[in-house]
Amino acid sequence: MGSGCWTIEKRSNLRNDSLSRENGSVPETGCLSVVVLGASGDLAKKKTFPALFNLYRQGFLLSNEVHIFGYARTKISDDELRNRIRGILIQGKGASDEQLEELSKFLQLIKYVSGSYDSAEGFQLLDKEISEHEVSKKTIEGSSPDLGGWTRIVVEKPFGKDLDSSEKLSEQIGELFEEPQIYRIDHYLGKELVQNLLVLRFANRFFMPLWNRDNIDNVQIVFREDFGTEGRGGYFDEYGIIRDIIQNHLLQVFCLVAMEKPSSLKPERIRDEKVKVLQSVLPIKDEEVVLGQYDGYRDDPTVPDNSNTPTFATVVLRIHNERWEGVPFILKAGKALNSRKAEIRVQFKDVPGDIFKCQKQGRNEFVIRLQPKEAMYMKLTVKQPGLEMSTVQSELDLSYGQRYQGLTIPEAYERLILDTIRGDQQHFVRRDELKAAWEIFTPLLHGIDNGELKPTLYQPGSRGPEEADQLLERSGYVQTHGYIWIPPTL
């Protein structure tokens, strides 16, 4: 995982590779092998293994069918890896004896292989372990020697650093795997509210006539963190906030907000429409970009003293098509800011003929809060209760914690791993989509890399550079003063 790649492989004596059992797990005679590269790393420990465990607990991965192989450079034993994972999976949960037994059974499914990433020896050992496991399964279950099945490779971002490196990486992977086998993962596509975007847009009549340049003034897609690089400075400085967040996570959300209605819910039809949107984006203008770097970023000993890497960026994208001509899409991301959140904010135009004189209070907005405290709410103007005819900003609110009590929202990696097993590529990035995304941002990134564009210093705990708010204002965004959304409580 730390090396940016892992695989899921199924061997079965069934010719039908669909997930035939009602609960969505693999067929009873199947043998599912999951290989996690970088298994000793932070991402695997915090995201991948917990997701696999949750799928196991829910019955999507069965102990008589699945085996998990971890691979990394670290010289540790099977039990040492299991103990590392155990601490994450039961931390602070006060697990019962039954849960601990379930965890113990899951950990026994994990086998660890140590090896390097730049030589064949380690991978040959890994292949031997997988083959021995599959042969043992075949022997135990009496499977046919003519094994059917599939292999799928899951590639973590970053997918290169610019257009050329991304295309080179795609060519190298393409020499070994066909496109239907390749799952380029962006965990934002697994988030509950992101997955809800297509339903919201295309299953609700009242959104459809409003979702265009005639009614929408601007759209913001925002990612904010209230902490800095925190020990990841060396890694982060190689990429920066645009490569780390905007070019992938926020751009994926942008596609779902702006795309046309697909002809069906087949993954390829949805991905076709995402590509069309990206290919309609105009070149980014220098005057519609604001870069920032928080004060203290270069104090990290792993960051060069003269680093030009932005930790904050606001970028305006403009789509040249009939629906969105003239509507700015403002993508904003930053670290060490005054709050932590990710949201989509669709701001509508002013009401013509404002007889209530309420425009100064703010515009209508539809807000989708991706994290934390998942919610969607419509900010609108209503009459202030009382004898006077005065207006006030309020909201129509759907907060998931209140509306869906007792339901656990799955983690993004759970969804995407399950989609990989099911062979559903809807929430993964296709090669031509990746190319179109890099075509948008590569000129800007090269300008930053060459020192032609410089980040402005901003203070940790602030909103970011003042120039970013000025760009929002120039782009037509009208800030609401005096209104704060308060998540409802039970």
TrEMBL record:
<feature type="domain" description="Glucose-6-phosphate dehydrogenase C-terminal">
    <location>
        <begin position="198"/>
        <end position="477"/>
    </location>
</feature>
<keyword id="KW-0521">NADP</keyword>
<dbReference type="InterPro" id="IPR036291">
    <property type="entry name" value="NAD(P)-bd_dom_sf"/>
</dbReference>
<protein>
    <recommendedName>
        <fullName>Glucose-6-phosphate 1-dehydrogenase</fullName>
        <ecNumber>1.1.1.49</ecNumber>
    </recommendedName>
</protein>
<keyword id="KW-0313">Glucose metabolism</keyword>
<dbReference type="InterPro" id="IPR022674">
    <property type="entry name" value="G6P_DH_NAD-bd"/>
</dbReference>
<dbReference type="GO" id="GO:0050661">
    <property type="term" value="F:NADP binding"/>
</dbReference>
<keyword id="KW-0963">Cytoplasm</keyword>
<comment type="similarity">
    <text>Belongs to the glucose-6-phosphate dehydrogenase family.</text>
</comment>
<dbReference type="GO" id="GO:0005829">
    <property type="term" value="C:cytosol"/>
</dbReference>
<dbReference type="InterPro" id="IPR019796">
    <property type="entry name" value="G6P_DH_AS"/>
</dbReference>
<comment type="pathway">
    <text>Carbohydrate degradation; pentose phosphate pathway; D-ribulose 5-phosphate from D-glucose 6-phosphate (oxidative stage): step 1/3.</text>
</comment>
<comment type="function">
    <text>Catalyzes the rate-limiting step of the oxidative pentose-phosphate pathway, which represents a route for the dissimilation of carbohydrates besides glycolysis.</text>
</comment>
<dbReference type="GO" id="GO:0004345">
    <property type="term" value="F:glucose-6-phosphate dehydrogenase activity"/>
</dbReference>
<feature type="domain" description="Glucose-6-phosphate dehydrogenase NAD-binding">
    <location>
        <begin position="35"/>
        <end position="136"/>
    </location>
</feature>
<dbReference type="GO" id="GO:0006006">
    <property type="term" value="P:glucose metabolic process"/>
</dbReference>
<dbReference type="InterPro" id="IPR001282">
    <property type="entry name" value="G6P_DH"/>
</dbReference>
<dbReference type="Pfam" id="PF02781">
    <property type="entry name" value="G6PD_C"/>
</dbReference>
<dbReference type="InterPro" id="IPR022675">
    <property type="entry name" value="G6P_DH_C"/>
</dbReference>
<feature type="domain" description="Glucose-6-phosphate dehydrogenase NAD-binding">
    <location>
        <begin position="148"/>
        <end position="196"/>
    </location>
</feature>
<dbReference type="Pfam" id="PF00479">
    <property type="entry name" value="G6PD_N"/>
</dbReference>
<keyword id="KW-0119">Carbohydrate metabolism</keyword>
<dbReference type="GO" id="GO:0009051">
    <property type="term" value="P:pentose-phosphate shunt, oxidative branch"/>
</dbReference>
<keyword id="KW-0560">Oxidoreductase</keyword>
